[in-house]
Specification:
Layout (H helix, E strand, L loop, with lengths): L24 E4 L11 H9 L2 E4 L2 H11 L6 E3 L5 H13 L4 E4 L12 H9 L4 E4 L4 H7 L9 E5 L4 H12 L5 E4 L2 H14 L5 E5 L7 E5 L1 H11 L6 E5 L5 H19 L2 H12 L4 H14 L1
Parallel strand pairs: 1-4, 1-5, 2-3, 2-4, 6-7
Antiparallel strand pairs: 7-10, 8-9, 8-10
Length: 299
């Protein structure tokens, strides 16, 4: 990123309480796992503000204690009370107090409460300032082996199976990779859906990032299920990146599906896989499950 002509030299000094602007809302990123990822600026802002609005005050108090931040004045702001809590925050801001907004982990507002507060502050002319830092989305993309020149972020998938499948169908039509969150107890069902809906489309799963047992896997959904079963890696925080429809690999997958749809409609799966392998120059075993699925759809 190029700096503008009016850009300032970054400050290397420590931040004191007097350096936090009064009547300003600071949106502060906190670690997603490893406490050492907290920025020096974030620590200083959290120690200097008059009030901290947190998604879960008990969890945040434990985090702040571990980070060495003195016990602050806190207010719970979550999806069930955001309207009321937002009013309290704006009142504090209008009285000239500085406020920090934090989530349970990472950068607030990415599938976390707080958007209504930020928008209302803009509408009221109240300054809002970011304190950048850890983000599960950016962290996953930074180590993802799939092409990610552009991407879409979709947050959490719906819990209901039908709604989840509908969303996955939308994702599969996206030319860019789609980043989404999924609960550990629903990830197997999600991957199974993708194995059926997306055939050879690859997916990257970042599990427990920056924590002791962090793991990163990238494969077609059916193979990914086998790998996660073998390693017993179905627990923890998950960030998923689905390969975009515009990738070269995805184009190959679409051609594979097209050919197997034609063969599978007329031939038994084994024969369709054998002929398809000759056409595509791949192993027969790679096409058998797809041929069986296409035959089932045709009947």
């Amino acid at each position: 990123m190029q700096q503008g002509e009016d850009s300032e030299t970054p400050s290397s000094g420590t931040l004191s309480a007097g350096d936090v602007s009064s009547g300003t809302l600071y949106v502060v990123a906190t670690p997603i796992g490893n406490l050492e990822d907290i920025s020096r600026r974030a620590l200083n802002v959290l120690a200097a503000v008059a009030l901290i609005a947190a998604e879960d005050t008990r969890r945040s108090l434990s985090l702040l204690s571990a980070l060495g931040v003195p016990r602050p004045r806190m207010l719970a702001l979550h999806e069930h009370n955001e309207a009321v809590a937002g009013d309290a925050v704006r009142t504090a801001l209008n009285q000239g107090q500085s406020v920090a907004l934090i989530s349970d982990a990472g950068t607030p507002l990415l599938s976390d409460p707080g958007f209504a507060l930020v928008r209302s502050c803009y509408d009221a002319g109240i300054p809002v300032r970011p304190v950048p830092g850890p983000s599960a989305v950016v962290a996953a993309l930074s180590v993802c082996p799939l092409p990610t020149t552009g991407f879409s972020f979709a947050g959490f998938l719906p819990a209901r199976a039908g709604q989840r499948r509908a969303r996955l169908v939308e994702f599969l039509q996206n030319g860019n990779p789609v980043v989404f969150f999924e609960a550990p107890h629903r990830l197997r069902a999600c991957l199974s859906d993708l194995a059926e809906l997306g055939a050879g489309r690859r997916i990257f799963v970042a599990r427990e990032m920056t924590k002791r047992f962090e793991t990163y896997l990238c494969a077609e959904p059916a193979l990914l299920i086998e790998q996660m079963d073998a390693a017993g890696q179905w627990r923890g925080e998950m960030v998923c990146v689905l390969e975009g429809a515009g990738s070269d690999r995805s184009a190959e997958s679409r051609e594979r599906i097209r050919i197997m749809q034609i063969l599978g409609a007329e031939l038994a799966p084994a024969q369709a896989a054998r002929i398809g392998a000759l056409i595509l120059g791949v192993k027969k075993a790679e096409l058998y499950d797809l041929a069986r699925q296409q035959r089932s759809d045709a009947e």
